[in-house]
Amino acid sequence: MKISSLLLLVSVLLGFVLVASAANFNQDIDVTWGDGRGKILENGQLLTLSLDKFSGSGFQSRNEYLFGKIDMKLKLVPGNSAGTVTTYYLRSQGSTWDEIDFEFLGNLSGEPYTVHTNVYCGGKGDREQQFHLWFDPTKDFHTYSLLWNPQRIIFSIDGTPIREFKNLESIGVPFPKSQPMRAYSSLWNADDWATRGGLIKTDWSKAPFTASYRSYKADACVWSSGKSTCSSTSPSRNSWLSQELDISSQQRLKWVREKYMIYNYCADTKRFPQGLPKECTVR
Questions:
Q1: How far apart are CA 51 and CA 188, in angstroms?
Q2: Which among 178, 218, 259, 270 has the fewest CB atoms less than 10 Å away?
Q3: Residue 23 pLDDT class (50, 70, 90 cuts)
Q4: Catalytic residue status for 99
Q5: Signal peptide position in this chain (predicted)?
Q6: From 42, 64, 103, 244, the catalytic residue
Q7: pTM of the predicted protein model
Protein backbone atom coordinates (compact mmCIF):
# COMPACT_ATOMS: atom_id res chain seq x y z
CA MET A 1 0.00 0.00 0.00
CA LYS A 2 1.31 3.46 -0.90
CA ILE A 3 2.12 5.80 2.00
CA SER A 4 -0.51 8.31 0.81
CA SER A 5 -3.18 5.59 0.75
CA LEU A 6 -2.15 4.41 4.22
CA LEU A 7 -2.39 7.95 5.60
CA LEU A 8 -5.83 8.36 4.06
CA LEU A 9 -7.01 5.09 5.61
CA VAL A 10 -5.69 6.10 9.03
CA SER A 11 -7.42 9.48 8.72
CA VAL A 12 -10.76 7.84 7.92
CA LEU A 13 -10.43 5.49 10.89
CA LEU A 14 -9.79 8.49 13.15
CA GLY A 15 -13.00 10.13 11.96
CA PHE A 16 -11.65 12.86 9.72
CA VAL A 17 -10.01 13.38 6.37
CA LEU A 18 -7.36 16.02 5.91
CA VAL A 19 -7.01 16.23 2.16
CA ALA A 20 -3.44 16.97 1.14
CA SER A 21 -3.47 16.76 -2.62
CA ALA A 22 -0.05 15.77 -3.86
CA ALA A 23 0.05 18.29 -6.69
CA ASN A 24 -1.04 15.79 -9.31
CA PHE A 25 -3.46 17.47 -11.67
CA ASN A 26 -4.41 14.15 -13.27
CA GLN A 27 -5.91 13.06 -9.93
CA ASP A 28 -7.31 16.33 -8.61
CA ILE A 29 -8.39 18.44 -11.58
CA ASP A 30 -10.65 18.22 -14.64
CA VAL A 31 -10.05 20.55 -17.58
CA THR A 32 -13.65 21.52 -18.31
CA TRP A 33 -13.57 23.76 -21.36
CA GLY A 34 -11.31 25.22 -24.04
CA ASP A 35 -11.26 22.46 -26.68
CA GLY A 36 -7.69 21.37 -25.94
CA ARG A 37 -6.39 24.77 -24.80
CA GLY A 38 -6.06 23.47 -21.27
CA LYS A 39 -3.27 20.89 -20.94
CA ILE A 40 -1.98 18.68 -18.13
CA LEU A 41 1.73 18.02 -18.64
CA GLU A 42 4.80 16.50 -16.93
CA ASN A 43 2.92 13.47 -15.57
CA GLY A 44 0.38 15.68 -13.83
CA GLN A 45 2.85 18.15 -12.29
CA LEU A 46 2.11 21.09 -14.62
CA LEU A 47 -1.11 22.52 -16.01
CA THR A 48 -1.37 25.26 -18.62
CA LEU A 49 -4.37 27.29 -19.78
CA SER A 50 -4.29 29.16 -23.06
CA LEU A 51 -6.34 31.88 -24.71
CA ASP A 52 -6.56 32.77 -28.38
CA LYS A 53 -9.01 34.80 -30.47
CA PHE A 54 -11.49 31.93 -30.57
CA SER A 55 -11.59 30.68 -26.99
CA GLY A 56 -10.07 30.64 -23.53
CA SER A 57 -9.92 27.61 -21.24
CA GLY A 58 -10.56 26.51 -17.69
CA PHE A 59 -10.53 23.75 -15.10
CA GLN A 60 -12.17 22.73 -11.83
CA SER A 61 -11.34 20.53 -8.86
CA ARG A 62 -12.92 17.10 -8.75
CA ASN A 63 -13.78 17.51 -5.08
CA GLU A 64 -16.13 19.96 -3.42
CA TYR A 65 -15.04 21.44 -0.09
CA LEU A 66 -16.81 22.93 2.90
CA PHE A 67 -13.96 24.91 4.46
CA GLY A 68 -10.29 24.47 3.68
CA LYS A 69 -6.95 25.98 2.80
CA ILE A 70 -6.43 25.82 -0.95
CA ASP A 71 -3.01 26.63 -2.42
CA MET A 72 -1.93 26.95 -6.04
CA LYS A 73 1.36 27.98 -7.59
CA LEU A 74 0.60 30.19 -10.58
CA LYS A 75 2.70 31.96 -13.20
CA LEU A 76 0.69 34.61 -15.02
CA VAL A 77 0.59 35.51 -18.72
CA PRO A 78 3.85 37.32 -19.56
CA GLY A 79 4.41 40.33 -21.79
CA ASN A 80 1.47 42.33 -23.13
CA SER A 81 -1.47 40.62 -21.46
CA ALA A 82 -3.86 43.58 -21.71
CA GLY A 83 -7.48 42.50 -21.98
CA THR A 84 -6.92 39.05 -20.50
CA VAL A 85 -8.15 37.84 -17.13
CA THR A 86 -6.77 34.85 -15.24
CA THR A 87 -9.03 33.67 -12.42
CA TYR A 88 -8.51 31.38 -9.45
CA TYR A 89 -11.47 31.00 -7.14
CA LEU A 90 -13.84 28.88 -5.07
CA ARG A 91 -17.52 28.72 -6.00
CA SER A 92 -20.67 26.82 -5.09
CA GLN A 93 -23.51 25.89 -7.44
CA GLY A 94 -26.93 27.47 -7.99
CA SER A 95 -28.43 30.94 -8.39
CA THR A 96 -27.60 31.98 -4.81
CA TRP A 97 -24.00 30.86 -4.95
CA ASP A 98 -21.08 31.62 -2.66
CA GLU A 99 -17.71 32.56 -4.15
CA ILE A 100 -14.20 33.60 -3.07
CA ASP A 101 -12.24 35.25 -5.90
CA PHE A 102 -8.74 35.95 -7.07
CA GLU A 103 -8.80 37.62 -10.51
CA PHE A 104 -5.63 38.80 -12.24
CA LEU A 105 -6.26 41.62 -14.70
CA GLY A 106 -3.79 41.76 -17.59
CA ASN A 107 -1.64 44.74 -18.47
CA LEU A 108 0.54 46.37 -21.05
CA SER A 109 4.04 44.97 -20.92
CA GLY A 110 6.00 46.57 -18.09
CA GLU A 111 2.97 47.73 -16.11
CA PRO A 112 1.82 45.97 -12.92
CA TYR A 113 -0.90 43.35 -12.86
CA THR A 114 -4.01 44.23 -10.89
CA VAL A 115 -5.10 41.56 -8.40
CA HIS A 116 -8.87 41.78 -7.97
CA THR A 117 -10.51 40.06 -4.96
CA ASN A 118 -14.16 39.59 -4.08
CA VAL A 119 -16.41 37.60 -1.73
CA TYR A 120 -19.93 36.52 -2.71
CA CYS A 121 -22.58 35.16 -0.38
CA GLY A 122 -26.03 34.10 -1.56
CA GLY A 123 -25.26 35.34 -5.07
CA LYS A 124 -24.32 38.87 -3.95
CA GLY A 125 -20.79 40.23 -4.17
CA ASP A 126 -19.89 43.92 -4.45
CA ARG A 127 -17.01 43.48 -2.00
CA GLU A 128 -14.14 44.27 -4.32
CA GLN A 129 -10.63 45.07 -3.19
CA GLN A 130 -7.76 45.48 -5.66
CA PHE A 131 -4.00 45.43 -5.30
CA HIS A 132 -0.80 45.75 -7.27
CA LEU A 133 1.92 43.20 -6.60
CA TRP A 134 5.36 43.77 -5.11
CA PHE A 135 6.94 41.35 -7.63
CA ASP A 136 6.60 40.35 -11.28
CA PRO A 137 4.03 37.49 -11.27
CA THR A 138 5.00 36.43 -14.81
CA LYS A 139 8.67 35.59 -14.14
CA ASP A 140 8.19 32.69 -11.75
CA PHE A 141 5.59 30.68 -9.86
CA HIS A 142 4.07 32.22 -6.73
CA THR A 143 1.69 30.59 -4.26
CA TYR A 144 -1.83 32.02 -4.08
CA SER A 145 -3.84 30.77 -1.09
CA LEU A 146 -7.45 30.93 -0.01
CA LEU A 147 -8.04 30.06 3.64
CA TRP A 148 -11.75 29.58 4.39
CA ASN A 149 -12.93 28.56 7.83
CA PRO A 150 -16.09 29.30 9.85
CA GLN A 151 -14.59 32.48 11.34
CA ARG A 152 -12.84 34.15 8.41
CA ILE A 153 -11.54 34.12 4.84
CA ILE A 154 -7.89 35.05 4.28
CA PHE A 155 -6.36 35.77 0.86
CA SER A 156 -2.57 35.26 0.83
CA ILE A 157 0.30 35.40 -1.65
CA ASP A 158 3.50 33.50 -0.81
CA GLY A 159 2.28 33.34 2.78
CA THR A 160 1.69 37.10 3.03
CA PRO A 161 -1.97 37.95 3.73
CA ILE A 162 -3.47 40.66 1.54
CA ARG A 163 -7.08 40.52 2.70
CA GLU A 164 -9.18 39.19 5.58
CA PHE A 165 -12.98 38.91 5.47
CA LYS A 166 -14.35 38.04 8.89
CA ASN A 167 -17.56 36.27 9.80
CA LEU A 168 -19.76 39.13 11.05
CA GLU A 169 -23.10 37.35 10.98
CA SER A 170 -23.64 38.69 14.50
CA ILE A 171 -24.26 42.15 12.97
CA GLY A 172 -26.18 40.86 9.96
CA VAL A 173 -23.40 40.41 7.40
CA PRO A 174 -23.83 37.21 5.35
CA PHE A 175 -20.90 34.78 5.41
CA PRO A 176 -20.35 31.71 3.20
CA LYS A 177 -20.49 28.70 5.48
CA SER A 178 -23.15 26.25 4.29
CA GLN A 179 -22.57 25.71 0.57
CA PRO A 180 -19.71 23.45 -0.55
CA MET A 181 -17.42 24.94 -3.20
CA ARG A 182 -15.10 23.66 -5.89
CA ALA A 183 -11.84 25.29 -6.91
CA TYR A 184 -11.86 26.77 -10.40
CA SER A 185 -9.52 28.61 -12.72
CA SER A 186 -9.94 30.14 -16.16
CA LEU A 187 -8.14 32.30 -18.69
CA TRP A 188 -10.42 34.39 -20.88
CA ASN A 189 -10.78 37.62 -22.84
CA ALA A 190 -12.37 40.55 -21.00
CA ASP A 191 -11.05 43.50 -22.96
CA ASP A 192 -14.38 45.30 -22.59
CA TRP A 193 -13.44 46.07 -18.96
CA ALA A 194 -10.28 44.38 -17.68
CA THR A 195 -7.48 46.82 -18.58
CA ARG A 196 -8.05 50.47 -17.70
CA GLY A 197 -11.80 49.96 -17.82
CA GLY A 198 -11.70 48.55 -21.34
CA LEU A 199 -9.65 51.34 -22.91
CA ILE A 200 -6.82 48.92 -23.79
CA LYS A 201 -7.85 46.01 -26.01
CA THR A 202 -6.33 42.57 -26.42
CA ASP A 203 -3.52 42.42 -28.98
CA TRP A 204 -4.29 39.12 -30.70
CA SER A 205 -0.95 39.18 -32.53
CA LYS A 206 0.54 38.17 -29.16
CA ALA A 207 -1.74 35.10 -28.85
CA PRO A 208 -1.82 32.44 -27.63
CA PHE A 209 -1.66 33.77 -24.09
CA THR A 210 -0.69 31.13 -21.52
CA ALA A 211 -0.87 30.87 -17.71
CA SER A 212 0.87 28.01 -15.89
CA TYR A 213 0.00 26.13 -12.69
CA ARG A 214 1.82 23.84 -10.28
CA SER A 215 1.46 22.37 -6.78
CA TYR A 216 -2.27 22.35 -6.22
CA LYS A 217 -2.84 21.54 -2.56
CA ALA A 218 -6.16 21.27 -0.75
CA ASP A 219 -6.02 20.87 3.02
CA ALA A 220 -9.77 20.78 3.26
CA CYS A 221 -12.99 19.12 4.34
CA VAL A 222 -14.33 17.22 1.34
CA TRP A 223 -18.09 17.39 0.89
CA SER A 224 -19.53 14.08 -0.27
CA SER A 225 -23.06 12.61 -0.22
CA GLY A 226 -24.33 15.57 1.77
CA LYS A 227 -21.73 15.29 4.53
CA SER A 228 -18.30 16.66 5.39
CA THR A 229 -15.36 14.34 5.88
CA CYS A 230 -14.06 16.51 8.74
CA SER A 231 -15.16 15.52 12.21
CA SER A 232 -16.31 18.27 14.55
CA THR A 233 -14.79 16.28 17.41
CA SER A 234 -11.24 16.57 16.10
CA PRO A 235 -10.70 20.19 15.00
CA SER A 236 -7.14 20.21 16.37
CA ARG A 237 -6.09 17.89 13.56
CA ASN A 238 -7.23 20.52 11.05
CA SER A 239 -5.48 23.59 12.43
CA TRP A 240 -6.63 25.83 9.59
CA LEU A 241 -10.25 25.38 10.82
CA SER A 242 -9.50 27.84 13.63
CA GLN A 243 -6.55 29.69 12.10
CA GLU A 244 -6.36 33.44 12.49
CA LEU A 245 -3.78 36.12 11.80
CA ASP A 246 -1.02 36.34 14.38
CA ILE A 247 0.71 39.63 15.15
CA SER A 248 3.35 39.14 12.43
CA SER A 249 0.70 38.34 9.83
CA GLN A 250 -1.34 41.37 10.86
CA GLN A 251 1.73 43.55 10.34
CA ARG A 252 2.33 42.10 6.87
CA LEU A 253 -1.32 42.58 5.99
CA LYS A 254 -1.09 46.22 7.04
CA TRP A 255 2.08 46.67 4.94
CA VAL A 256 0.42 45.28 1.80
CA ARG A 257 -2.73 47.34 2.24
CA GLU A 258 -0.85 50.58 2.89
CA LYS A 259 1.56 50.21 -0.03
CA TYR A 260 -0.23 48.18 -2.69
CA MET A 261 -4.01 48.47 -2.32
CA ILE A 262 -5.50 50.50 -5.17
CA TYR A 263 -9.24 50.05 -4.54
CA ASN A 264 -11.30 49.27 -1.45
CA TYR A 265 -15.09 49.16 -1.60
CA CYS A 266 -15.12 50.07 2.07
CA ALA A 267 -13.63 53.46 1.20
CA ASP A 268 -15.90 54.16 -1.79
CA THR A 269 -18.44 56.54 -0.27
CA LYS A 270 -19.69 57.65 -3.69
CA ARG A 271 -20.70 54.09 -4.47
CA PHE A 272 -22.63 53.77 -1.21
CA PRO A 273 -24.37 57.14 -0.69
CA GLN A 274 -26.74 55.61 1.87
CA GLY A 275 -23.80 54.46 3.99
CA LEU A 276 -20.99 51.92 3.74
CA PRO A 277 -21.77 48.19 4.16
CA LYS A 278 -21.91 47.04 7.79
CA GLU A 279 -18.66 45.09 7.64
CA CYS A 280 -16.82 48.26 6.64
CA THR A 281 -17.62 49.91 9.96
CA VAL A 282 -16.08 47.17 12.12
CA ARG A 283 -12.40 47.34 13.05
A1: 6
A2: 270
A3: low
A4: yes
A5: 1-22
A6: 103
A7: 0.90
